[in-house]
Structures are given as structure tokens and as C-alpha cells.
Write the C-alpha cells for this entry.
Amino acid sequence: MVKGFPTAWLVTPGLIWLLVFLVAPLLSIIVFSFWTYTGSGMAPDFTLKNYVDYFSSPIYLVTLWDTLKYTVTVMFFCLIVGYPIAYFLAMQVETFKWQMALFLLCMVPFWISYLIRALAWIPMLGRNGLLNIALQALHIIDEPLTMFLFSDFGLVMAMVQLYVVLCVGPIFFSLVKIDRSLLEASRDMGASHFQVFWEIIRPLSLPGVAIGMIFVFVMVMGEFATAVVVGGGKTAMVGTIILNLLGIVQYPFAAVNALWLMLGMMLGVFVIMRLVDIRKEL
Amino acid sequence: MARSTPERRRKTLVKTLFGSYYVLFLIFIYGPMFAMFTLSFQAQQAGINFPMKGFSIYWWRQLFDPNVMGSLHQSLVRSLVLAIVVMVLTALLSTMLAMAYRQKFFGSGVLFYTIMTGLMLPGILVGLGVSLLTSALKIPPAWWFTGLGVQLVWSLPFGFLIMLAVFNRFDSRLEEAARDMGASEWTVFREITLPLILPGVISAGLFGFTLSYDEFPRTMLLSGESNTLPLDIYSFLTQRVRPSLFAMGTASTLFSVFLIVVFLVVYTYLSKRTR
């Protein structure tokens, strides 16, 4: 029985596009990591020199480790900042209309250029920035602090603000799906408010948490622009290293760095999926 | 009402606490943008920080000064052209792919994960891959070629997920009925399927538009000799930050908000009509 257009027609254009601009480039990163650096580019070869170089200097692995530490910090703050927002929207706001309106209000930044949002942190964080002015006005500090702009603190805060919406969305969707009669029933059977949250809401929201965490993890691991704009280029992340290597046409070595970043990310996503079975969600 | 008064009082308290936290959260995510907006009206002699030393539109006028902002207008035009092409291609290809997924087919699992890789992979890795490949093949990158290529890889998964959701709620019996009455596949698609999925198709397209318009990490390595708007913004950012940059940021933000409003209006109108 013929049903609709033939699958091959429907799939072919998209498939070719993905093969050319996604699959082939990714595979080529693996191939190029074995090529030789020629001073003006690269030449076909099969050498392990790039890998030896990668491990012989501590900079690269240390940067990968630092990037991972930043990422985990940002993930942690995104979760504790974002979860209560998702909880509020899903559990406390009663009418559907208000729920959607307040949720959309949280999601608007997703459609705004993230370069612009990173730029907006500059007048906040500087020595004469709004944060210092506000803290001084509240008499929390006497002298302006220099710890905000071009520092880890400022960078982490900016990245939490940039990526927290990616975490609110999935958690919100897993929370609204929870059957309210479950909560009613457990209350009737004498569970405390905390028990209802810990025993019922928390486990049921874990798939959303995992999806949100994967989004934030992947985004921050590959981050470089915020590190340049807000971190002032002082903070080395794998992304900035790759960019610098490209600048000096060290293509094969950039490929090796990219490969280890990719491996680190696959490992991270694997660990998150191990902790939470998100297939139940999909 | 069996509920006791303390219980109700507790509920109000909890709701107030969460509500206040929500307001703080909004200040956190919008505050910096409002600071930037305010500072774009800073007096001419002043720097990029508070306090305001007067009010002027000097920095906004600089946006239109070709000596200051260089070839910004051409970049804007390039970005818009690219966004429109990505919009059309995202709508078209994601609809076709999602239609294929209405039936099981060989390799559907692998294809699904390949599409999703475009979403999950950081832009810099995709950009690096394509940039290395083109340099090895001695193909010069260009915004309308390699730039377009990687932008679609990024927008396609969003459109695809939207269209999958649309087809999940789709009632195929309408198409069956039309086929039984002797309509050809094209007629079924034009008369039945397309009108019903149109709000989804347009959403997918508009998603493609905004994702392309703001795309930076992928395009950065692949636009060739001419920049798109985000690339220009980035190069301004890495030089000296001036209030004119805040004016540009504000203008760009207002344009994005305008797009969201268009999106909501179109979506509400179309989904009312199909119902």
C-alpha cells in the first residue's frame, strides 16, 4: 500500500546536506589529526606526533580539565538557580495562560544574540560597574572590587545567566507532566511537603534535569566567545586554544585538541545518561 | 473547605516567596540588557559605565556613520539574506524529514541521531571540521556556501523536532479519506496535509530565521572574506567597547523581540484558522 511520498525522496536532500556539512567534516577531524603540520597548512601523512605533542606539554590537558571544572560549576549554578523557577512555573502558577506567559518571558533571551547578552555584562562587572555601585550603595563593601570583570567569578556568573534558560525549559516540561493526583494522594496519606517533593516530584523531574544538564554541559564545554568577551581572554578554555591554533594555521594540532574535547564531551553525556534514564522521557 | 487557615496561610507564603524569587530571576536575566540599553544614551564625553553623565543620542547616530561602523550595513544585508535562505530550507527539509518519520524505515535510528548531533555538537567543532575540510580540498569558504551549510546543520534539528511533534498529533484518516476518493499524492499533500501542518512549518522556518540571524561560532570560521552581522559584532567586542556598541546591541535585541512578536502573532492566527 502506498502511503504518502516515497521515503527515499523525503530523506535524500536532508541526508546529503548532513553528510557534506556534518558527518564528513567530523570524520575529517579524525583523519587530519594524523597529518603533518607544514608551516602553511597540513600535508597527508600518518604520524602520531600531534598526539605525542598533546601529551608532552601539560597545558592542553590542564586546560581541558579547567574547562571541565568551569562547566561543572556552571551546571551546578544553572541547576540551583533554574530548578526553583521551573518548579514555580509548573507547580505554583495555576492558570495555563499565566504559566505559558511567564514561561515565555523566561525563554525570550534564547532568541536574543548571545554575543549581545555577553556584551551586556561588561557595564555590570567592571571596577566602576553596576555591581560595584550597587554593593557600595548597600554598604556591603566600601571599596570597589576588581574581582568581577576578567575574572572566573564574572565569567561563571555571565555563563550561568546565558545558559540557565536551557535548563529551565526541560525541567519545566517534566514537572508539568506530573500527575497532580499523585501529589494529592501522598498528601492525604500523611506525607510532609518535603517528602512529597523528595519522594515524588524530584525523581519524576530527573529526566528533565538530565536533558537540561546535557544542554548546558555541551554548550559550556565548547564555549569560547564569553571567555574572550567577559573573561578578557585570560581564562583559557579548549575553545579558545583551538581558535588560537587555527590563527597560526596549526591545523592538525587543532584537530587533536578538538578530538579530545569531543571525547570528553561524549564521556560527560554518557555519565549523565547513566545517572538518569532519559529515554523514559522521549 | 476542609483546609485549615494555617495551611492556607502557608500556601500564600510559599507562593509569595517563589514569586519574589521569579522576579529576582527576571532581573538577573534582563538586568544587564536594560543597563546596556540605558547606557546607549550616555553623554558623548562619557565612558561605558554608570553613572549617566547626561542624555544624548550621539552613540545611536554613530551607528549610521560609515566612518565609524565600517561596512556594518553590508553585513546586515548578508545576515538577512542568509537568514531568509536558512528559513526556507529549514522549513522545507525539516518537513520532508519529519514526513519520512511517519513510517519506520531502514536507518531511521542512525539518521535521527545524526540530525540531533547538529544540535548537540558545539559550534566551534562543526566550524573547525568544515574549515579543515575545505582547506584540505582547496575550496575557499564563503558565507553563502559553507556558512549556509553549517547554519542549516544547526537549525535543522530544531525544525525537525517541531515537525515531529506536529505529525505526532496529525490525524492520518483525513489523508486516507482523500486517497480513497481518488486524490493523487500531490493533491492530498496540497489540499489536506499542508494546510493542517502549516503553523508548524512556519514555526520551523521562523526558528531557522532567528537561529541563522544570531549564529556565530559556526559561521565565524566559515564566512570567507565577508562578515555576517554577528561576526562584525564580535570583532567590535574584541576591540574597544564603546557606547555605540551598546546602541547596536539594543537595536539588535529590539529586532529579535520584534521577530518573537511576529512569530507569536503568526502562530496564534494560523493555529486558530486550522482549528
